[in-house]
Specification:
The chain is an alpha+beta fold. The protein has two domains: about 120 residues, D-amino Acid Aminotransferase, Chain A, domain 1; about 160 residues, D-amino Acid Aminotransferase, subunit A, domain 2 (D-amino Acid Aminotransferase, Chain A, domain 2, Alpha-Beta Barrel). The protein is about 30% helix and about 30% strand. The strands form two sheets. Strands 7, 8, 9, 10, 11, 12, 13, 14 and 15 form a nine-stranded mixed sheet that branches. It has a six-stranded antiparallel sheet with strand order 2-1-6-5-3-4. The structure holds 4'-deoxy-4'-aminopyridoxal-5'-phosphate (PMP). The site of 4'-deoxy-4'-aminopyridoxal-5'-phosphate (PMP) has 12 residues, from α6 and β13.
Length: about 280
């Protein structure tokens, strides 16, 4: 693989970052994951806007212009011959040359890393046909989940809890209400109505969430942005999750209770279809 590190395209074995990098020592950095379909970037502008928001929240300088970010993404697609897959982008506060809690001076250059992950069959993921089984776990993450930081230890632990329970993923619950999935936003469907938690510091402001809610409204579905409990989800007609790397995925079982008939429902199938169709049209 050819990767990008601080202005250079390198073989992955040649790309080296300092042990004093703030990303390594403090999880002091942010990231984005953009899907590639047919060699094109899905919702690239959405990711670049959120990247800026995350960097602003942590007072990390954005080292590249939007045009430069697009160029680096495109170079990596071409150099690695990616048809379907993902591009991972990470910006950390950089390498101050020692360990210190205080932020280094603002003129320290951030560390920029991008790499590709080829995923043939990404759009035709068989899980979209079978649906996901999930468990609920307590949300013990920090209070700024709206910032897309590289601090992913608890989400990783959540995925492992799901794996040990023999299911696919987990939803976080705080004060009896679902916040989001370990790496996705969470939704339920009742009749023609899509229900998902409102935006706040409690959840990541999903790029896919924004697009799906727009498409749902355009397709004459009702959209209600409010919190819901696991009990309400278990009694819903359908449930699903969204993320930039899985798009729209049905959830068919929560904590052992089947949702509806226990198979993916028509509203979620339609949303996935619309999402992929519209995003492919707009891909860069
Ligand atoms: N919530 C969390 C905690 C996530 O990690 C992700 C995926 N990065 C999402 C939601 C979905 O966001 P997006 O649609 O922008 O990928």
């Amino acid at each position: 693989r050819i990767v990008y590190l601080d202005g250079q395209y390198l073989a992955e074995t040649e790309a080296k970052v300092s042990i004093f990098d703030r990303g390594f020592l403090m999880a002091d950095g942010v990231y984005e994951v953009t899907s590639v379909l047919g060699g094109k970037l899905v919702d690239f502008p959405g990711h670049i806007v959120r990247l800026q928001r995350s960097l602003d929240a942590l007072e990390i300088r954005n080292p590249l212009s939007s045009d430069d970010w697009l160029e680096v993404h495109r170079q990596l697609i071409v150099r690695n011959n990616i048809d379907e897959g993902m591009i991972y982008l990470q910006v950390t506060r950089g390498n101050p040359g020692d360990r210190d809690f205080a932020f280094p001076p603002a003129d320290l250059p951030p560390t920029v890393v991008l790499f590709t992950q080829a995923k043939p069959g990404l759009a035709n993921n068989p899980a979209a046909k079978t649906g996901l089984r999930i468990i609920s776990i307590p949300d013990i993450r920090w209070g700024r989940r709206d910032i897309k930081t590289v601090q992913l230890l608890y989400p990783s632990m959540g995925k492992m809890m799901a794996k040990k329970a023999g299911v696919d993923d987990a939803w976080f619950v705080e004060e009896e209400l679902v916040t989001e999935g370990t790496s996705n936003n969470a939704y339920i469907v009742k009749g023609n109505r899509i229900i998902t938690r409102a935006l706040s510091n409690d959840i990541l402001h999903g790029i896919t969430r924004a697009a799906v809610l727009r498409f749902a409204a355009e397709a004459q579905m009702e959209v209600e942005e409010r919190s819901f409990s696991i009990e309400e989800a278990q009694a819903a007609d359908e449930a699903f999750v969204t993320s930039a790397s899985t798009f729209v995925m049905p959830v068919v079982e929560i904590d052992g209770a089947k949702i509806g008939a226990g198979t993916p429902g028509p509203i979620v199938a339609r949303l996935r279809e619309i999402y992929l169709e519209e995003m492919l049209k707009a891909a860069l």
